[in-house]
Amino acid sequence: MLFTETPSLERPLAAKLAGFEAVEILFPYAENAADLGTAIARAGVHLALINCPPPNYIDPDGPRGFAAVAGEETRFQQAFRRTIRYAGALGAEFVHIMAGVAEGPQARAVFVENLKWAAEFAPSQKLTIEPINSGDMPGYFLNDFDLAMAVLEDVDAPNLHLQFDAYHAAKITGDVLKTWEHVRARVAHVQVGGVPDRREPEGGDFDYPAFFKLLDKQKYKGWVSGEYNPAGRTEDGLNWIG
């Protein structure tokens, strides 16, 4: 989402020169893994996270997740295996497993079983799930933090964690800090974006400087990732990382 002015294989270096220590590449699958791995290594950045599943090349606008979709269990396993190959080749610390569009008790049961399978299939790979607000992704199954916490309890896997996006928290609950306190014991990865417009995480309706100070005070050790749509050139809106 950042550095889109730059060819994809040059973005890791652009991020490094801008002051970032790590990058996320949500969907790296259009690139040759060896070429992308070389670009990351030469830039000297860590790859924090990639998403599962890979995009569907037949339908690029198709679902970006189906871990909670009944009847798609085989498809999920195939996609997860491919994601794990990329994660291993690129050294990705986290794999975010996307739930997809679904609802109801059956979807929850399918999601839990798929997550259990994934955690057992790749026990050394850190995995995350992330609540996403229904306005940005209508019908997305995992659209509630209480549900996410319950799913984590049901799966009960040491390598499965919560991914906390403050922008989505604001949209879902209206109270980012209260939500953070409720879930932070399970959080391994944080993302930020401006509220309400998902621009740079500064100004707007949420006090990000205060949130960053709170993370430091609480000795949060994970990554804080800028996941937003820059208002202009990426480099012109990076005051927040200071």
Question: What report would you give on this structure?
Answer:
- It is a single chain.
- With 242 residues, the protein is of the alpha/beta class.
- Strands 1-2-3-4-5-6-7 form a seven-stranded parallel β-sheet.
- The mean pLDDT is 95.
- The chain has eight helices and seven strands; from the N terminus they run αβαβαβαβαβααβαβ.
Strand content: 5-15%
DSSP summary: helix tally:
8
Helix content: 25-40%
Shape: globular
Q: What is the CA-CA span between the terminal residues? A: 20 Å
Fold blueprint:
Elements: H1 11-18, E1 22-24, H2 33-43, E2 46-52, H3 73-90, E3 94-97, H4 105-121, E4 126-129, H5 145-155, E5 160-165, H6 166-173, H7 176-183, E6 187-192, H8 208-217, E7 223-226
Identify the notable features of this structure and list them briefly.
242 residues; globular; seven-stranded parallel sheet; single chain; alpha/beta
How do you describe this structure in short?
The chain is about 40% helix and about 15% strand. It has about 240 residues and is α/β, with parallel strands linked by helices. It has a seven-stranded parallel beta sheet.
